[in-house]
Amino acid sequence: MASATFAMTTATSTIEITPLETTVSGELPLKKVLIPVGFGTEEMEAVIMVNVLRQAGADVVVASVEPEIQVKLSGGIILVADTSISECSDQIYDLVALPGGMPGSVRLRDCKALEEITRKQAEEKRLYGAICAAPAVTLLPWGLLKRKKTTCHPAFFHKLPTFRAIKTNLQVSEELTTSRGPGTCFQFSVSLVEQLFGESASTEIGKFLLMDTVDEVSRMEEFNEVDWAVDHTPHILIPVANGSEDIEAVTVVDILRRANLDVTVASVEKTLSVIGSHGIKIVADNLLKNAAESIFDLIILPGGDSCVERLHKSRILKRLLKEQVSSGRKYGAICTSLLILHKQGLIQNKKATAHPSMVSALDSNTIVGSQVVVDGKLITCRGLSSAPELALAIIAKFCGHGRAKSVATGLVFEYRAS
What we know:
Distance between the termini: 46 Å
Number of helices: 13
Largest sheet: 8 strands, mixed
Strand order of the largest sheet: 12-20-21-19-18-13-14-17
Shape: globular
Structural class: alpha/beta
């Protein structure tokens, strides 16, 4: 790839991906990163890693270890890889990073081409990493944890060599970096950025992800509290478009499905395939025009600047949102997508939160500085690293704090009821 700024063109749009200016000089070669995926790979982990590393300026290749490049991940998201792992064997990578998930980690373990690539990476003292189940299920059988302090998901911790297993969210041991699960993946990814590009780059990425202020704002505030409980499995619609913020859409879908909520990802494009803000292609469950025939208990809009423009132009979505509100059902927005609700007059006299870049465009009486804000039947979120908080808040509103806490435990994410 000749430039640190590149464009991805589809039949319907052009998505430009511009890494942070502070991280990569145009005179330097891009750092090459390999992220393999297989059937049952944990989608939050894969997408967060790809998104964050591409934002930092890395040339990230997502490679399928399956016969096809379309791969169904652990929560049902279908991701379209960039290439097959067989095409990667003759390449040299600055980093090979393995997402977890089951049976995804087993699928990675059983891939001989990936094993050879990762063994060579370790032998030549280049960076490699793994998260969740992958350290114990994938790297350990390959013999790549020898003399390394390591962590992994609590459910697999007993498999690690006792004298070098560390109960910590992030463990860096020379060239190897390991972490515990989806809830620690932002920290894991930012650490990989620091090792590839330096501390200043990781600081900038932390700001981009809104991680720099996470301890300065409350997790959630609620106004005009109402009961969200329904007498059936909650049906949730997440419309997506080219340019959707990958992290937000996939994270919310993944976490809600862990709670057994019925989530439909619907494309506003003419095809099911949608290319996200950082070049990650997923296949939606349905087209919005078909999904619109159903009734949903909640509609959540993901962010992403070009996505917001495309969602706003959708007449079908405008009608759905209007009907959602007039019928007294729940609705919400993540990050910059609050602008869609604002333009439709759907946040009048409501409290909400949004990406900090949007605050000046909205009524100061509307915006609250929390990560997640619930006002009656409206729920909003600042975006990016706050997406897990949004998803857990939705679970708590529909199903109670007990289920939300249980899901958070599986994520290795600290849950607080308020």
